Amino acid sequence: MTKIVIVGGGAGGMEIVTKLGRKLGRKGKAEITLIDRCDHHIWKPLLHELATGSLDEGLNALDYRMHASQNGYRFEQGMLAGLNQVDRQVVLAPMLDEFGAEILPERKIGYDYLVIGVGAVTNDFGIPGVQEHCDFLDLTEQAMALRKKIRHRFLRYAKEHNVEQEHFEISIVGAGATGVEMAAEMHHAADTLRGYGYDIREDLLQVNLIEATDRVLPRIDKPRICNAVAKELAKLGVRVKTDTRISEVTPMGMHTADGQFIPSDMVLWSAGVKGHPFLATLGLEVNQADQIMVHPSCQSLSNDRIFAFGDCAACPQEDGSWVPPRGQTARQMALLVGDNIEKLMADPQATLDGYVYKDLGSFVNMSKFHTVGNLMSFVGGGMTVEGKMARLVYTSLYRRHLIALHGVSKGLLLMLLNGLQRIMRPELKLH
Ligand SMILES: Cc1cc2nc3c(=O)[nH]c(=O)nc-3n(C[C@H](O)[C@H](O)[C@H](O)COP(=O)(O)OP(=O)(O)OC[C@H]3O[C@@H](n4cnc5c(N)ncnc54)[C@H](O)[C@@H]3O)c2cc1C
Hints:
CATH topology of the largest domain: FAD/NAD(P)-binding domain
Oligomer: single chain
Bound molecules: flavin-adenine dinucleotide
Number of helices: 11
Helix content: 25-40%
Number of domains: 2
Number of strands: 26
Strand order of the largest sheet: 5-2-1-11-22
CATH architecture of the largest domain: 3-Layer(bba) Sandwich
């Protein structure tokens, strides 16, 4: 039987494995295996909400093993560490517990078609001190650790403990959608905690949003969206510093290239993404950002049986641009990979489809304060929507992901539970 191995159960990986599992795995037409370093999936675009406690991980985490048993694939937990292209095997690193004791030894898993969708990591651009002194939002564990850290800082700086602290100063480096959304989420967390009785001064929280280019949302080419977001940030009191390049991060704050020092109690680094460094060791062609170079069919330039999609892939477009690292592209590329593998299974000489990026829209959700975005950007520049309508479209992306993974009835039930949970439980998860 044809063996299809998918590494990475993220935004795109879960969609392809669910589709292939149901279509081929359940019917015994192929053996589908999902490999992920974690044992559960949380949709990455929600990580900033997880970090502040707006999102309940209990309700939104999906157990891979349970999902596999219901959808016609098998799950293997492990970190992709190597690749044997001759014997067609992936190598998984030994799995260790938190004390370094081995749980599982190194494993080798055979494939006929390999699909790599391991996402990306935040780019530190080699700037001194970033790895040591900054927080990141690449992994669920990092979001959970950040939640604890933020809560502890608010507790410590609440007035009743008399800590001499003028401001709780958080700097967020990178004013893309993630940085902007996190800045708004921080204000939402401060407001909500104040409502729960934490004695937090109105002006305690100072969020600095640092951007190297000359405006917020440098990748969104829609002045109306950028202006609406800049206005909302100003209303919240977020201090936006554009044209500011960080040259070093220390435990006390950040030095800039033009000689300023920005004091910070915490620095969240969200200045763009790059591929995982280990991808450069697999024997596949990668670009300078360690992303796997692929043809428009998503096949690796080095090996036709190996596909890559999403944030870890560098996929060219006809106009010379590259597919951007976004949730919608990961999903669309992953589904195209599934179709292409099915075609190859039917006819190894089949002509494969190429991925054409269609910008369906970009949305920025500033927590409870405002949502703004552009719909159907590929049709005459699209249509800008704001407020409740924009919020509805923004949340519908996650709803579509839930339905793809669970089917319509269970997906709708989960949405209902999420809605009920918002009424019955505190707005912020405190534990
Ligand atoms: C806070 C935040 C907000 C965002 N908001 C938006 C948004 O509003 N809209 C949008 O379009 N995009 C958004 N993005 C970007 C979006 O999340 C990514 O583009 C998308 O998740 C990429 O999907 P993917 O499938 O390529 O990788 P991911 O979703 O990152 O999944 C990668 C998977 O691979 C696994 N993995 C990693 N390394 C290994 C390994 N060595 N071995 C095995 N498994 C491994 C990981 O555990 C993970 O499950 C946001 C990102 C962040 C961080």
